[in-house]
Each structure stands twice: as C-alpha cells, then as structure tokens.
Amino acid sequence: MNKTPSSDIRKVFGKLTIKEPYTRTKWFSVRFRGYMDLLRAFTLLAPIVVSMFIMVASLIKSGKTIPDNWWITIGQTSATIAIVNAASNALNQATDIAADKISKPYRPVPLGIVKPDEAQSLAYLLYLLALLRSATINAWFGVFIFLIMVFTVTYSLPPRMKKYLFINQVWIAIPRGMFGILAAWSVFGDPFTPTPLIVGTIATVYLIGGMATKDIVDSEADRRTGTRTLINTYGRKKTALICFPFMLFPFLFIPIFINHGLEPYLWPLILTVIPTFLILYLMIRPTESKTLENVHAWSIMYIQYIIFAMAFSLLTIFSNEIAL
C-alpha cells in the first residue's frame, strides 16, 4: 500500500495532534516534541495573523513612506508577539499540572515528559527573549509587551488571577485584546488615536465573553483545584447567556463608535458578529474536538477574532477605494 502524506509527516514529528500518543522519531525525541507541545501552536495562530494584518493597516493609515524592509519588521514583530504568547502557554501548563492531570492528561507535563520546573524555566526564557526583542522595535511596543507579560504571569502565578470568578476572563482578555492590538498598531502608527483604541475595546469585550469557551472542558478539573469559572459556577447554558451580550453588543455598537471617533469606512465590521450565534449554540451543546484541546466553540471563537482583525485591517488598507 502507498503511504499517506500524514504517515510521512508522523515519521518526522511523531504525531500530528496534541492528543495523539508520543513516539520517538528519527528527527525528534519524545522530550523535544513535549517542549514543542508546551507552546500550543494553534493558539499562536491568532496573535500572529492578527498582529501582521493590524501592522500593515497601521502602516498604510499612518501615511508614512513605506520602508523597504517593512516586511522584515512585521515578521520580527509578529514573532515577538507569538513568543510572549508561547511563554504564557508554557507557564500556564507548568502551574496547572493538578488540573491537567484530570482534564488534559495527554499534555507533556502531566505525562512526565517535561517537568513543571522545566516548563516554567522555558516560559521565563521566552518572556525574556520577547522583552529584549520588543525593546529593539520601539518604546511603546516594548511597553505593551511588558504589560502583556505582567497580565499573563499574574494570571498563572500569585496572585493567580485565574482562580477568581469573572476576573479570570477579564484578566486574559485585556492582554489578548487591547494590549495585543495596541502593540501591533504602535509599530508604525500612534496607538492612542481613536480607531485602534476603539477596535481594541471591541476585541477586549468580545474576548471577555469568548474566553469562557476554553473552560468548558476544564470545568470539573477547575472546580476540584479551587478555580472558579462561569462554567463550573453557573453551568453551560447560563454561562452562554451571560457571555452572549459581551460577544454581541461590541459589534452592534459600531455605528455608535463611528460617531465617537471610529472611521466611517469600518461599518461593515458589524457583519463579523455572525459567528457569535454559532458559538452560543456550540456552548450550550458542546462537542469536544478530536484533534484540538477544547470544544468547537473555542475554535470558532478564535477564528471569529481572526476574521474581525483581518476585516478591520483590509477595510483600513483599502479605505480610500471604499470612500470612492
């Protein structure tokens, strides 16, 4: 029989998804693959794509002469944002071993492939790398990266904001929403103008609601380890109804935002609200993904956020043509 492409890839990486068992390959040891899985590649897709599109939009919007090496700057900057997210992923797994043994025993730390202190050390190295790299971009970008670090570190380590009901969702939404967007915009533009601030606010409010999707699989594990979430406090249906307004109204209020500084050409962003209704349904009737770490509502939430950022950026880039 002919070999399938997936079998060839498995020969190199050992496995294609996080939930598959670890196997040694010619190129990667089980331990090295465990370190790779600490970074959680799927969750890095959003910050990379979002930051790249927003940086291009800010460059066009700034009206400055486009530098010859603009694409190098964007690549290095988006990599820096991805690194700080990877660091938070590694730190979260290092500190969540008790819960992961219950709900996500396939992860490298509960399996003993990577020790908790090793995962934590990797997180600190990545944080340091991101901070040093951000300082070479510009001052404001460095400040926003530092603020993202503060929020993500205190989410997992004392005072460990992750364990406090509702605060945990706000605490993770601010760095992934507001600070992430302002950091990307600051590379070429002024982050304190109305448009990036309002778009950052929309993203933050949306993520306050959307981040509840990540807690569905961990509901029992969080309860048993002393972490209060909306899911394990109110159940799936009530949580979905609580979170729905956060994921709906930021988009519906775009006409109001346009009257308060948001660019008029951005009104089509209202249409990006559509996946919210699917997420509501999937939160009430969750089905866990066979390949990714969470339920399908969590995946759709990330995809909707990417679509929103891409739509915002493309509308900004082609704003002159839209105005005509």
From the spread of the alpha carbons, the general shape counts as globular
- Based on secondary structure, the structural category is mainly alpha
Rounded mean pLDDT is 92
> What share of the residues does DSSP label as strand, in percent?
under 5%
* Fraction of residues in helix: 55-70%
**What composes the largest sheet?**
none
CATH homologous superfamily classification: UbiA prenyltransferase
Low-pLDDT runs: none
Radius of gyration using CA atoms only: 20 Å
What gap, in angstroms, lies between the N and C termini? 58 Å
Number of domains: 1
List SSEs in N-to-C order.
Answer: HHHHHHHHHHHHHHH
Q: What is the CATH C-level name? A: Mainly Alpha
Number of helices: 15
Q: What is the multimeric organization of the chains shown? A: single chain
Q: What is the CATH topology descriptor?
A: Tetracycline Repressor, domain 2
Account of the protein in words:
With 324 residues, this protein is mainly alpha-helical. It has a single domain (41-317), classed as UbiA prenyltransferase (Tetracycline Repressor, domain 2, Orthogonal Bundle). The protein contains 15 helices and no strands. Helix 4 packs parallel to helix 7 (139-156). It starts with a helix and ends with a helix. The mean pLDDT is 92.
